[in-house]
Amino acid sequence: MSRFPADSVGLVTPQYQTFAEPLRLACGRMLAGYDLVYETYGELNARRSNAVLICHALSGHHHAAGFHSEDERKPGWWDACIGPGKAIDTNRFFVVALNNLGGCHGSTGPCSTNPETGKSYGASFPILTVEDWVNSQACLADVLGIDTWAAVVGGSLGGMQALQWTISYPHRVRHCIAIATAPKLSAQNIAFNEVARQAIITDPDFHNGDYAAFGVIPKRGLMLARMVGHITYLSDDSMGEKFGRELRTDRLNYDFTSVEFQVESYLRYQGQEFSARFDANTYLLMTKALDYFDPAEVNGGNLAQTLEPVQARFLVVSFTTDWRFSPARSRELVNGLLAARKEVSYVEIEAPQGHDAFLLPIPRYVAALSRYMNQIEVDR
User: Fold this and answer.
1) Where's the active site on this chain (predicted)?
2) Annotated catalytic residue: which of 8, 322, 326, 330?
């Protein structure tokens, strides 16, 4: 008997797809060839009309649901919403989750070997944009025989990809679920990303991005970048509820090096854990893609005009205490869609967890997502 819950997709195996056709990038460079790693859950129906694409956020990857082994303790990052009978029901949908190009979990990225040099790309890997990711995802869809996605779903940076899909390939997306996201970053968000990048770039072990050649990683910089980012993913209320001003010991040490407060310990742990599993060059790439995303720029900032070609129906979700991607930014997207005369549903979820709420099984959130996904036709 399997130890996995009945609503789990169970054991899953990552799949790899190699693309020999060059990919032209927004930065003007070409990627001669590349690999994408992905997972699938559920079965593609005969009409190939039930496919759902899951787009990951900054530090996400292809392992969105299920387990890689019987011994794996934690399931994929969105297991709460993907599986039999769950919001994204694998009894109905064929779900595809991939690691973006430029990632560090199997898809071609800075850690990969450059076939021209025989060494890792490192700092020579090209800058990527959300549009580049969507174009590579479209190539994967072609290989899988998926002409049209029943839905493209994503939170945060993943929501930007879902939105870009409807703009770049309007005939290939029937529904778009954009969660805790925005049509472009605010100046404050760009500023946070720049602080994180500077923490990495100024680390003595960064070596202009070629740290692999020196057998080191910019661990301190990556830790600081993650600590800064993690603060922005939580709300003041959630941090207060988790940690308050609790001390780790029964007295203060009156120095600058001791870890005295529980919140300090938590942030250092998060930074250390992240620096052991994520690549610094990938972090730089992902944050730049966030900064560059602004599909309305080609139309002078007119979002409604940019959304004119869109054919998908939308569900837009925001969270009350998310100050990184506030509800106001989601409403900006909703207003643009309405001005472009598109079909859109909007729900604002009361949640104290801040930006991280989009990853959590909050009952009203899950109910709204389930209700929307359940009304998507899969046999058309």
Assistant:
1) 156 (nucleophile), 322, 355
2) 322
pLDDT at 246: 82
Catalytic: which of 62, 63, 105, 355?
Answer: 355
Residue 279 assigned ligand-binding role: no
User: Is 108 in a helix, a strand, or coil?
Assistant: coil
Place of tokens 């769950």: 86
In CATH, what number is assigned to the domain containing residue 234? 1.10.1740.110
On whether both 267 and 120 belong to a single domain, the answer is no
**What per-residue confidence (pLDDT) applies to 380?**
62
Task: Give the domain range for residue 134.
Answer: 15-184+297-375
Low-confidence ranges of the chain (pLDDT < 70): 1-2, 380
**Is 226 assigned a ligand-binding role in the annotation?**
yes
Two structure tokens written together for 172: 């290939």
pLDDT tens sequence across 141-160: 999 999 999 999 999 999 99
Catalytic annotation present for 156: yes
Neighbours of 274 (CB within 10 A): 19
Same domain, 237 and 309: no
258 counts as catalytic: no
pLDDT, position 2: 61
Q: State pLDDT tens for residues 333-346.
A: 999 999 999 999 99
355: alpha, beta or left? (left if phi > 0; alpha if psi -120 to 50): alpha
Catalytic residue among 156, 238, 318, 326: 156
124 with 267, same domain: the answer is: no
d(C-alpha 297, C-alpha 319), whole Å: 26
